[in-house]
Amino acid sequence: MLIKPLSVIPPSKFEGEHIEKLLHKMTRKRGLFRKKLLEDVTRKSMVWMPYYKIQFSYSRRGGRTERGETALNAMLCEAVKTDEELLMLFRPNYLKYETMSHFPRSKELVGPTVPTDFDSLFGRILERLNRVRDELNALRSELSKRRVRIRRYSVIVPMMGELKKEKRLSERVAMLSAMKNVMRMCLNVNREINSIKATSNSVFYYPTLVVTLKNREDGTETYLVVDLVARGVLSKHSSFDRGLTKLCNKNEMCGKIITSSFPQ
Asked: Which among 6, 35, 124, 157 is placed 20 to 30 Å from 55, CA to CA?
């Protein structure tokens, strides 16, 4: 695996116009001529977001044991409520960067880590993965039978009802397949897994800019989490973290934890 050093964009580079560009990406336009943003930036904080680097062993069909590694947000993992929210916290792609020790500069904060039961967490994901796999296998078998029936009899008798059922089944199969791929991607494993057990872990820090926004019309507060790792070679650019931004705006506890990262 190719390892690259972290290239961090200083938060001082993010002036109003840079944040405005990111806001335009995340804000839905309500009309053709609605270009003006309705949010004002109220606070900004540079946070070195903690992530667990987790090593684990897992067994495949036939009993063969393999080793794997993934990364999980160590600041928000105890605040999530659903499996969907939990999956938003995995960042196996961060493993491609070199970890680096960092002493925070003035106004930069290091986020706190929350003790986590990794085996319980992995067990939760594996249970969900198995349910999805079993339902997917059953639906694929049913879908195959329906398609054979449609091909065999549709020339003789119109089968609109069967076609509608086939469409619904196809959509469900596609959704479950995507869910299965997401869970495998979070675990950083592209194989069928029978069991999984954490073996070791360490903590590394990833640079983010946390921004609070206030709506000019109703006064509601929302969050924007910006990835401060530079991308590209010729032109350095960053983007907002869609998963953490969505999670902190949806989950009240995650929002409170993010808010606590601001200097008092």
From this structure: 6
Helix (H, G, I), strand (E, B) or coil at 175: helix
DSSP 111: P
Q: Are strands 108-110 and 39-59 parallel, antiparallel or unpaired?
A: parallel
The predicted pLDDT at position 40 comes to 76
Phi, psi of 59 (to 5 degrees): -105, 145
Helix (H, G, I), strand (E, B) or coil at 76: coil
Alpha-carbon distance 177 to 188, whole Å?
A: 16
For 213-253, what is each residue's pLDDT tens digit?
888 788 888 888 888 776 654 345 557 788 999 999 999 99
Predicted pLDDT at 188: 95
Length of the chain, in residues: 264
Reported as a single tens digit per residue, the pLDDT across 219-228 is 888 888 888 7
CA–CA distance, 46 with 109 (Å, rounded to integer)? 6
Are β-strands 39-59 and 221-231 bridged in parallel, bridged antiparallel, or unpaired? unpaired
> Nearest to residue 74, comparing CAs of 257, 241, 209, 210?
257
Residue type, position 228, single letter: L
